[in-house]
Amino acid sequence: LERESSPWTTIQCIIPKIDISVSIIGGYDCKSNSRPYQAAIVTGDKGNRRIYCGGSLVHPCWVLTAAHCRHFKNCLVKVCLGKYNLKKVETMEQCMDIAEAIPHPGYNKKKIDKDYMLIRLKPCATITKAVNVTQLPTSCPSDGKRCAVSGWGTIKSPQTKMQCANVSIVPYNQCNKAYFGRITSHMLCAGVPQGGIDTCQGDSGGPLICNGLLEGVVSWGKFVCAQKGNPGVYAKVCCVVPWIQSTIKKGIRSVYGGF
């Protein structure tokens, strides 16, 4: 597996420049501590964080995000959990270094396919009311399934408070037609029929949660977000649960010297 390790100390930071639909458009302020699995990959100092990408805590030591977020190797970044307001130092927040980042071995940058990456935290997270893992799916979501997305907004115009929105799974054929055949078996689409709600630049790597399960990783979409007929595109988590589990298991063994 391809790995990238910390510390990353170069000051210049490369923001992902993929045609991604990466911030909550048409959403609402989340309730504080209502998304304990939400991770924020951030730059900046305490009390003045800047969102780089989102992610989901899938194990106390591991966050799942998008592989196209990997350019943070040139950034001074932290992974923060238990965050709600990026402009405040919050009592429940936990911010960690990145020990290593492992993109999916099948990641295709050109097609933005298999857009998954696991980040190992240093130190591991402490489970609290504000910080907790999300569950992985045992099957793929059905068409029309109601889901939720969350994050902080666009890179250029980030929201201070975490934003939430409700979307539904869009049928594969409908989404594939909207994106001219670019949707692969490792992608799924979600949005609302009338448009107006989507994820846009700033929330790449963030979670798509359906019935309490992590079904998608925010990946890409139309550059003009929340358009009618052009839903957001997510990396489908149900396809890679074995890879997630085996990578975490191998990582734990390497850190702790086996069981």
Automatic annotation (TrEMBL):
Q: Does the keyword Nucleotide-binding apply?
A: no
Q: Which UniProt keywords apply?
A: Disulfide bond, Hemostasis impairing toxin, Hydrolase, Protease, Serine protease, Toxin
User: Record's Pfam families?
Assistant: Trypsin
- Is Disulfide bond there in the keyword field? yes
Q: Which CDD domains has this protein been placed in?
A: Tryp_SPc (cd00190)
One GO CC annotation:
secretory granule
Q: Which residues form the Peptidase S1 domain?
A: 24-249
Q: What would you give as a GO molecular function for this chain, any one?
A: serine-type endopeptidase activity
Q: Name one GO biological process term.
A: proteolysis
| InterPro entries per the UniProt record, alphabetical | Peptidase_S1_PA, Peptidase_S1_PA_chymotrypsin, Peptidase_S1A, Trypsin_dom, TRYPSIN_HIS, TRYPSIN_SER
- Gene3D superfamilies according to UniProt: Trypsin-like serine proteases
Could you tell me the superkingdom of the organism this chain comes from?
A: Eukaryota
* Record-linked PROSITE patterns: TRYPSIN_DOM (PS50240), TRYPSIN_HIS (PS00134), TRYPSIN_SER (PS00135)
Family note: Belongs to the peptidase S1 family. Snake venom subfamily.
What protein does this entry describe? Peptidase S1 domain-containing protein
Q: In which organism is this protein found?
A: Naja naja (Indian cobra)
